[in-house]
Amino acid sequence: MNQPKNLVEQINAMSSDDISKFILECMGLRVEKLEEPGDRKEADFLAYYESEIFIIEAKLKVDDEKELSRRERVLTQGEVYVKDDVLGRDNTVSGALSNARDQLISSAKVHRHDLRIIFHLSKGINVKAKYEKTTDPLLGRTNIIDMTTQKYKPCYFFRYSDFYKFRHAFDAAIVGYVDGHFELHANLYANPHSPRYEKTKKSKFLARYKCKDPMVEEAQGRAYIPDANISIRESEEVLNHLRIKYKNAMLEQIDFFAPEITIRVANE
Predict the structure, then answer these.
(1) Pair 226, 97: CB distance under 8 Å
(2) Using one digit for the tens of pLDDT, what is the confidence trace for 45-98?
(3) Which of 5, 141, 197, 202 is the one with CA 20 to 30 A from 225?
(4) b/e 229-265 (16+ beta carbons within 10 angstroms → b)
(5) pTM tops 0.90, yes or no
(6) Domain range list for the chain
């Protein structure tokens, strides 16, 4: 999803709510900001697409001020700035998603709607890693590699998943980031554990953006999913189950590193 080159400049001048509203409107939604009444929690927006109505809670992931200071100090000294991120479950992200759960459920009791959507946007340093580290806990995602072919596929619900834990609040998710080339990237995900899963599959808005569905990906042979009755407490047990289910003893689990390496080039 590409946007005009001045998108980053526009976003940097906005509040977090304004950023979210701006991007949702760029996606073709008519967006109404909800004001918190004081006696209960409230989601951020009501959004409209044709005849569909969505309650949306938006979360913005930005850089830690201490990390920004460290980066500037390293670059000012003429050194190489390196920041390693390991993909996989991130409890900080899950904490933000827990707050979103409460807000969506509270608003759902008051406002007429079709679906409840969590929108998470990342910007700043190593922004692709931030995006992936949001997607991983949301979907309980990891990577499974076939050691024979050296090819890998995502495995959904391999570990604790916020889509499952908050299935009554999250019908779908929009997860996006703004990269260093001034482009907005976003993926939409349907929650197969939601009691409104069938409605998500019929949504015109979700279909417009080719909403990803873990169940469809697994059925097409593009992903792994453990059976619902398998305990995910021990990763090795889940992995052994996948080896049996997919008839492949050479499967292994891996979470990738996502480093950022930056240097400052002096102007001639």
Answers:
(1) no
(2) 999 999 999 999 998 876 665 665 666 676 676 766 556 655 445 556 667 788
(3) 202
(4) ebebeeeeebbebbeeeeeeeebebeeeebeeeeeee
(5) no
(6) 7-262
